Amino acid sequence: MPPVSRIRRRWRPSIALVVAGVCITLVSVPLLSLLAIRLTSNQFIRETEQTLIQQGTIYAALYAEAFAAQKGAPIGPVLDEDRRAFWAADLHPVPARLNLRHDPVQMPRPEGRAVPRPVDPRHAALVGDLIETARAALKTNLSGVAFLDHEGRLLNAPLAPSLADLSEVQAALAGDVGRAMRFRGKAFDPHSYASPSRDTAFRVFVTYPVIVENRVVGAIYLSRTPLNLGKFLYRERADILMMLGAMVLAAGGLGWVLTRLISRPAKGLRDAAMAVAEGRSDAAPVLAHYGLRELASLGVSVEAMAATLTRRAREITTYTDHVTHELKSPVTGILGAAELLQTEGLPEEDRAKLLDNIAQEGARMNALLGRLREITQVRMSTGGAGGRLAEMIPLVPGLDIRIETEPEAELPLTAEHGRMLVLHMAQNARAHHASRLSLTWDGQDLVLADNGEGIAAADLARVTEPFFTTRRDTGGTGMGLAICGAILDAYGATLQARPSDVGAVFVVSFPATTGGKGGG
Known about the structure:
Number of helices: 11
Structural class: alpha+beta
Number of domains: 3
Distance between the termini: 56 Å
Strand content: 5-15%
Helix content: 40-55%
Radius of gyration: 51 Å
Largest sheet: 5 strands, mixed
């Protein structure tokens, strides 16, 4: 039965969904930015307006030169001081200012209001050459050009109708650059996407003043349909498709990398964790690729958790088997003694002996259970800061414990755990009739040697096993050295018995990365 999780069940995106979202965002953000910044109508309108202003500058210079070459009385509105200073400056840039969000699109340009009197002879004389120049330029710049006199009359048309009522013309006659957006007219007919050049429903109009001797002698009236999004996309379709393909490839590559670095290792760790949760710790796989440093660290943690759970499960099984076996003998003895005590006419001497057996077996059971409780507590404890060797020496009657190295040397385990370790080792030495126990620390290994009975060569590999004892008949439980091993497990250290001609020698080895300070 799977364990009950306390994690709240709710919808959460999968890693694959997040990766897909990142890829889609990678593709869409540049396109959205392109549409929002570069391909806006305002950008197209202002580009068109700026182009017309540049063309108007050239036409105005030709117009002014041709007009100034002719003789006649001064005509045209006089510039005020501000405009005179502006046009007299060495640099007088005219920026594009039309804004589709603020400036309204006006009605189509009218044909003009009829004026009965003829135009000034000087305008009539120069307009022909200007029109020819405009026709030649029209083949390249595709801009509509009209030439106005100082009253706003249209010199391109017969009878020169007046456009002076238009706001952009009034601005030019006052010495400013006029500008406006106007609908194309009733004859406007949208074309298909394959021919998008006339899809925009309005035109941009710019009027540029012609100034001679601080008077506005005329104006250049230019117009053009601004570029629109459809036409731009159609014109730049090859580059856009290439960019889109590159972004799709980049997004796909990023998705593959993220999947390999995150999704696959995460799923593998999930399967490993589920194997541990289901009790299949040995089946938890070691992944071939972890992708990210954090996932590799998590994999190490999962592997360590699986190993710890496996080890503890085996220990629990072993302890259960041994406890069952060890308790069976005293329980059997207690039950047998209790049964005999119920015999009528049992001599007092036998009764006392049976009661003594019950007490001894009970004490043995209590000692065994106490050691089990102690090793359980040790297993639940964790490591800590190092302590000084001098703080770890217990007082054991009949045993001389000597430090053969620097007493102030620091070991990589706490003083409390160190005292517990040395105490069990000292009790074990004393139980084997030792009178002396020496401790030597070299910075990584702690050597404990006594002058007791020693250890048989056949038992060297087993003395640290739980419940193994050579003193069972004298009350040994075989748990003392097992408790020492449990203490050292928290520090990644090991306890081994080594051959010796005199007494018993035990070596506690700490990992190289946790070697303590000091030494002999």
